[in-house]
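Lab notebook: predicted structure, single chain.

Context: the supervisor wants predicted structures on file for every construct in the current expression panel, including those that have not yet been purified. This is the next one on the list. No modifications to the sequence; it matches the entry in the shared construct table.
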Amino acid sequence: MATLKAAIPILPADDMPRALEFYTARLGFKERFRDDSQAPRYVGIERDGIMLHLVEVTPAPTARLVASQTMCRFLVDDVDALYAEFSRHAGV
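Prediction complete. Output recorded below exactly as produced.
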């Protein structure tokens, strides 16, 4: 029987450079791969073994509609410490 190893959320971005700046500089994710060879652009980011994929969705109104229906939940060992970290870097 096969074993599932992970689930990777794919999150929409209407401005890929801006999204990458937010996730990397502010939330501490690292870029792991990028596919700019054709539209839509697709990027994988990772932090603490958690992988997220970002896909460019255009035009912006479509991206906002998709984003309004997209959710991602994280389980953490110390939510207060993570909140403090994000507050320092992301202005939460």
